[in-house]
């Protein structure tokens, strides 16, 4: 079943009606070639609910639907995971965002760390973030998420550390960390509604000075096992472990 995101005001629970506007109209009419009577799923991106609808009419600038029922149970993780991702080379960030959204990340924050090869000026960064947000939306639709995770503007490592200060649990996978039991204890001890900051380094990892700054600010170095993971693999690994532990 196809899923679409709308603004909260486009869902009228009292009238049992939902109106879809914007680019999704052309997608529904001319790409998917859907017809009146077919069922779709709609989310407002805020409350995590799924609004199951039947198409009533397909107009030039809107698709009008009848609200059939509301599914309260959502697809969100019990914890809010903020993925602080060191900027990787080439198009790896697109893959990271897509998979992080599928695995339940609440927000993705690109971080310009010292070993990042990619350096974006303000104009390029804005264009990249717009594209990345589109990838996040597409991944949210595909994985039936109730919200579209935000992809933030690019931050410096120091800005990222300051942002993470308000979060309940903060970890930074590091190749020189050794205590796997500590990793299990932290992830296994997560509780519903907690916010979790996960820092992932770029190719080449974080510099020792950055690790020291992280530790000084309460971010705990953890190991992800005996193997060195690529930057595009490390975040997915942590998110998968968090999902496994918190959704049990």
Explained architecture:
Strands 7, 8, 9, 10, 11, 12 and 13 form a 7-stranded parallel beta sheet that branches. The chain is built from 7 helices and 13 strands. A hairpin with a 4-residue loop joins strand 2 and strand 3. It is an alpha/beta fold and 248 residues long. It has 2 domains: 69 residues, Ribosomal Protein L25, Chain P (Beta Barrel), CATH 2.40.240; 167 residues, Alpha/beta knot.
Could you give a short description of this structure?
The chain is 33% helix and 25% strand.
What amount of the residues lies in strands?
25-35%
Q: Give the overall form.
A: elongated
Tell me how many strands there are: 13
Helix/strand order, N-terminal first = EEEHEEEEHEHEEHEHEHEH
In this structure, how is the largest beta sheet organized?
A: 7 strands, parallel
Span between termini: 26 Å
Specify the number of helices. 7
Kindly report the average pLDDT value.
93
Mind telling me which CATH architecture of the largest domain this is?
Answer: 3-Layer(aba) Sandwich
The CATH H-level homologous superfamily of the largest domain: SPOUT methyltransferase, trefoil knot domain
Helix content: 25-40%
Low-confidence stretches: none
Structural class comes to: alpha/beta
CATH topology of the largest domain: Alpha/beta knot
Q: What is the highest CATH level, the class of the largest domain? A: Alpha Beta
Q: How many domain units?
A: 2
Radius of gyration: 20 Å
């Amino acid at each position: 079943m196809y899923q679409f995101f709308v603004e909260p005001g486009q869902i009228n629970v009292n009238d049992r009606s939902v109106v879809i506007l914007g680019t999704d109209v052309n997608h529904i009419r001319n790409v998917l070639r859907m017809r009146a009577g077919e069922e779709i799923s709609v989310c407002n991106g805020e409350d995590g609910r799924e609004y199951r609808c039947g198409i009533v009419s397909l107009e030039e600038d809107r698709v009008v639907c009848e609200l059939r029922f509301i599914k309260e149970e959502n697809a969100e993780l019990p914890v809010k995971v903020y993925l602080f991702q060191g900027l990787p080379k080439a198009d790896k960030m697109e893959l990271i965002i897509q998979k992080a959204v599928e695995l339940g990340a609440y927000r993705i924050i690109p971080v310009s760390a010292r070993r990042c090869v990619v350096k974006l000026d303000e104009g390029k960064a804005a264009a990249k973030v717009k594209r990345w947000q589109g990838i996040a939306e597409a991944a949210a639709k595909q994985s039936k998420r109730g919200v579209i995770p935000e992809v933030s503007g690019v931050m410096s490592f120091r800005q990222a550390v300051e942002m993470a200060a308000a979060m309940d649990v903060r970890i930074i996978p590091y190749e020189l960390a050794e205590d796997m039991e500590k990793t299990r204890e932290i992830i296994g001890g997560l509780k519903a509604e907690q916010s979790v900051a996960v820092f992932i380094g770029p190719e080449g990892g974080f510099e020792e000075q950055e690790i020291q700054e992280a530790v000084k600010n309460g971010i705990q170095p953890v190991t992800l096992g005996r193997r060195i993971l690529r930057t595009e693999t490390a975040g997915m690994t942590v998110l998968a472990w968090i999902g496994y532990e918190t959704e049990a």
